[in-house]
Amino acid sequence: MSTLSFPSNLRSLFVVASVGVASLMALALLSLSTGSSNSSDKQRTGKRKPSRRRKPKVYLRGLYNLGNTCFMNSTLQSLASLDAFNAYVERCIGLLPDSDRSSVDAAIAVQLKHVLDLLSPQLSRVSAYSPRSLIISLSHKGRWIASRNEQDAQELFQMLSSTLQSVVRNAETSLFDSGFLTQHLPIENGIVSTSQQSDGDDVAKNDSPSSSPLAASQSSFASARAVLENPLLGMAASRTACVRCGYIEAIRHSTFDNLSLTVPRAHTTSIEECLAMYTVIDRLDDFKCRQCSIVATLAKVKRDIATCDSDLAAQDMASKRAKRVAATAATLREQQRALDDALANNPEADLPGIQLASPPPSVSTRQTMIARPPKILVLHLSRSIYLPTGGTAKNPACVQLQRFLDISPFTTTGHISTNASTPISGPAVPVNKYSAESLAEIRRRNCLYRLSAMVFHSGAHDSGHFYAYRCVKAANSDDVQTDSNNILTDSDQWFMVSDIRTVEVSLESVLDAGNGYLLFYERV
Fold first, then answer.
1. Which of 199, 423, 437, 456, by CA, is between 20 and 30 Å from 113?
2. First to last CA, the chain
């Protein structure tokens, strides 16, 4: 039957239905062809294409400003982004005996952990928090915390760091308390209580020297120290060398929890240039070299010995004067032997009874490099400028940042240079930090860091406002960081936190902000 025999309205409906059926058949054929194509692609590659899942909405808790406390709020927000630091605080609290939690340092640590827990990312909106209890605890250690004057974020960071180190020292002195060790047996510290071993095990272990109570205590103490390792602590190496004689003093090592870097007086600079200024070889014009002093003293002693020998040749050996000169010559020869031995073996050795001569001041060099990079690298950008009038001003230089920081050019390599005009260690092999192979090499040196948080300051030198940029890591960020091929993949979220105000921002806006004050890097 032809469609022309139908009424006009039914004829239109039939046409629409036909078009719809044809469209559905076309879509079905397209779906089958696409599915077969995807299936063949999957068979060829053997890999499943990554799914683009939408990032879960994350909310951060703000902190109330209780009167110029932005320096504290920004610092706490930054510390809350550091996984290793949060774990360290938690371990410190877990090792505190109940009897010691009333001390000032312990109270600060407990309140700090409470605030850090509240500042962890949330999946729903949360109200702001007032850190009044932490301020009260900190004020018992420094009254300036509770004042309403503007304070410095770096000073607060150093107070928190030193407080936790004090808590660790107090905990270490309590580790030999058997009741404390037994109480904290479940903690991952390798501590074993002999009271929980069977009699057979005790008899078997008594045959071994390592099973003595002293050895067990030493092993437990070493294991506990490993658990309490401070992720903020690194080690710096300093070398002073004399340009005149080439003598190098013993390399001096010192620990640090943050490095204070001078910002160059320029419109734009980089964090690498700030680190280069920290490790630059400085020239000292008024240095008194120990070896030069010994050499000058030895020359004087030899002249005095020659004078004594000349006097003895002209004196009657039986006279009292000759005896005094001979005794003086014998003493000088003993000093000569001591000075020769010091020059040959150790110029820093004590020389009792010998007054060293003061040679003319010589030119020397001094350099400091990073000897042991910490797990968390904290960089303080010192922006103070001292004016000729005696006042201070803020250096407004824009410090350019990158997400990854390679500090291998500023670290020692284990090969010490004996040349006063060259660095302590030779420069590391240059690498391209944007290739997977280079990133793997830098990570092997423990020199690759990833930016995790920053404290920024806006305003003048003596006034202004502190706020923070902090990173919220993606759920699979740990898996990504273990693979050098995927380490450049950035799926983290960044937030600007100013007291109670939190705003999600892009990584580019963070890196281009330029006015950083405290930078927090985590080792990759």
1. 456
2. 77
Question: 77 vs 86, 93, 119, 383, 473, CA distance in Å?
Answer: 12, 20, 7, 22, 14
Confidence of residue 467 (pLDDT cuts 50, 70, 90): very high
Whether 21 has a pLDDT exceeding 50, the answer reads no
pLDDT tens across 246-255, in order? 888 888 899 9
What pLDDT, in 10s, does the model give residues 114-151?
A: 999 999 999 999 999 999 999 999 999 888 887 777 88
DSSP, collapsed to helix, strand or coil, labels residue 439 as helix
How many whole angstroms from its chain centre is CA 312? 66
pLDDT (average), residues 311-334: 86
Here the tokens at position 51 are 């799914």
Displacement of CA 182 from its chain's centroid (Å): 33
Whether the predicted pLDDT of 24 surpasses 80: no
Residues 326, 250 contacting (CB under 8 angstroms):
no
- Give me the pLDDT at residue 478, please: 53
Which comes out higher in pLDDT, residue 456 or 149?
456
Closest CA to 219 of 181, 183, 273, 264: 181
Q: How far apart are CA 465 and CA 71, in angstroms?
A: 8
State how far the Cα of 274 lies from the Cα of 516, in Å rounded to an integer: 12
Identify each DSSP E strand in 233-348 by its residue range: 234-242, 252-256, 259-262, 268-270, 282-287
| Alpha carbons 249 and 235: distance in angstroms, whole number | 18
Question: Which pLDDT belongs to residue 71?
Answer: 94
The pTM for the full model equals 0.75
| Segment holding 70, helix H or strand E | helix 70-79
Crossing angle between the packed helical segments 153-173 and 213-227, to the nearest 10 degrees: 160
Closest CA to 263 of 407, 369, 392, 383: 383
Residue 399 backbone phi and psi in degrees, to 5 = -100, 110
Contacts of 345 (CB under 8 A, 6+ apart): none
Distance CA 431, CA 441 (A): 8
* pLDDT reading at 471 higher than 60: yes
Give 207's pLDDT tier (boundaries 50, 70, 90): very low
Instruction: Give the pair of three-digit tokens for residue 484.
Output: 């050098």
Cβ atoms 399, 263 nearer than 8 A: yes
Question: DSSP readout, 193-262?
Answer: -GGGS-HHHHHHHHTSGGGSHHHHHHHHHHHHHHHT--TT-EEEEEEEEETTT--BPPPEEEEESSEEEE
Separation CA 217–CA 204 (nearest Å)? 18
Query: 234 — phi, psi (to 5°)?
Result: -125, 180
Three-state secondary structure readout of 453-519: EEEEEECCCCCCEEEEEEEECCCCHHHHHCCCCCCCCCCCEEEEEECCEEEEECHHHHHCCCCEEEE
One-letter amino acid identity for 212? S
